[in-house]
Specification:
405 residues, Arc Repressor Mutant, subunit A, Helicase, Ruva Protein, domain 3, 5-stranded parallel sheet, alpha/beta, Rossmann fold, disordered C terminus
């Protein structure tokens, strides 16, 4: 066991751990030049004092959405004499209309924000601040879909553009969920006037380049080999194409090697780190799902383990489930814990969201299967997924599937 003195000794493996953090924004963003260009084009009107279209950016966790936006924000800071004023808001922290407005006011008028005004007063102050010299406020709303009163927030920010003669507000919304707008009120949707960018997953070569770029600064010379970097890139690609996952594996592999008193990262520690990171990723993603998506995923995990009422399909390697079978199990579980199950239209949306999160894969049935249905495959180990959900839903790590009354 390491002592405090051991921890204070200079690392033999790491040179700069900060660059291995997912929050670090490098000078060069690999594999995202096209997306950066699209963001720059979307924000360009604001830099000239003109109202632009709102922009919504979608993609799974770890594909560079936030990093690209932050990269462009840093570029804007170096442009002189621009009328654009930018606020970056993490909506996991500022998760209501009032908190978002207060954060924007705090960014640009900090003394006013501390006076305890209500949402209407904040709105009026923000409107007059924009109008006094025709500013363009660019509000970057990261994880916009978690805002509790999102319709009210969108209505408020778009209403400013109707209430003033010059200047305005441009929104950049970032979300893991492509379909989050389906939940918006039609009046909110009609006021958006937005364009969209969808970020695809990184491929193995892109992840390898990202890891290599960070390793040059983050590790001591010769402390991590090309073989290990390629293994980590391949592992992360197989799981999700997620740069955060790849960086987590690389950082943890270094820590495990260091704990074993090694002076370089060995492949066995990279393999252990990949397995540990996989469990972490499942927990991180599952814990943020809405309640009914958790129940659908729990149904899939249970059926994958062999509890299906219909015959499962298997190609000898993977197990596939009928969509109707999953829906019936979801209804049964919901009712047994006194939750009203959602209808099939919502269920289809839940499947789509789970697929977007990289937790399941869904395929249209082909020849040889009677009728038209979806085939569903769980992409993470069923037992591990089931255990996480049981702890999260039922509050017990060893919880059993609830039975019908």
């Amino acid at each position: 066991m390491q002592t405090l003195s051991d921890l204070l000794v200079e690392s033999k493996i790491f040179a700069n751990r900060e660059v291995l953090s997912p929050h670090y924004v490098p000078r060069k963003l690999i594999g995202r030049q096209k997306e950066i260009g699209n963001i720059e084009r979307a924000i360009a009107p604001a830099l000239k004092g003109e109202r632009g279209r709102n922009l919504f950016i979608y993609g799974k966790t770890g594909v560079g959405k936030t990093s690209c936006v932050r990269y462009v924000i840093e570029e804007v800071k170096n442009i002189p004499n621009t009328r654009a004023q930018i606020s970056y808001i993490n909506c996991r922290v500022y998760n209501s209309r009032y908190r978002v407005l207060n954060k924007i006011i705090s960014d640009h008028m900090p003394t006013y924000a501390k006076r305890g005004y209500g949402a209407v007063e904040l709105y009026e102050k923000l409107r007059s601040w924009i109008e006094e010299d025709n500013k363009i406020l660019v509000a970057v709303l990261d994880e916009i879909d978690v805002v509790k009163d999102l319709d009210d927030l969108i209505y408020t920010l778009t209403r400013i553009n109707s209430d003033i003669k010059a200047g305005g507000v441009t929104m950049i919304g970032i979300s893991n969920k492509v379909s989050f707008k389906d939940y918006l009120d039609p009046r909110s949707l009609s006021s958006l006037y937005e364009s969209e960018i969808v970020f695809s997953n990184y491929n193995a070569n892109e992840l390898y380049e990202i890891l290599s770029d960070r390793a040059v600064i983050g590790f001591k010379k010769n402390a991590i080999s090309d073989e290990v970097l390629r293994f980590i890139a391949a592992s992360a690609t197989r799981e999700s194409g997620d740069a955060r996952l790849a960086l987590k594996i690389m950082s943890r592999a270094g820590e495990l090697s260091e704990d074993a008193s090694k002076d370089k990262v060995e492949i066995e520690y990279a393999q252990k780190a990949a397995k540990m990171a996989e469990d972490d990723v499942v927990y991180d993603v599952v814990s943020t799902l809405p309640e009914h998506q958790k129940l659908v995923l729990y149904s899939i995990a249970l059926l994958t383990q062999g509890g299906g009422s219909y015959k499962k399909l298997s190609d000898g390697v993977d197990t596939y489930l009928f969509s109707g079978e999953v829906y019936n199990r979801y209804k049964s579980i919901s009712e047994s814990i006194h939750k009203e199950p959602k209808g099939e239209r919502w269920y289809r949306k839940y499947l789509y969201e789970l697929e977007m999160q990289g937790l399941i894969a869904a395929y249209e049935s082909g020849r040889g299967i009677r009728g038209h249905t979806k085939l569903i495959k769980l992409l993470y180990p069923a037992q591990r997924t089931k255990m996480i959900l049981e702890k999260d839903i039922f509050g017990m790590p060893d919880a059993k599937e609830p039975q019908n009354d």
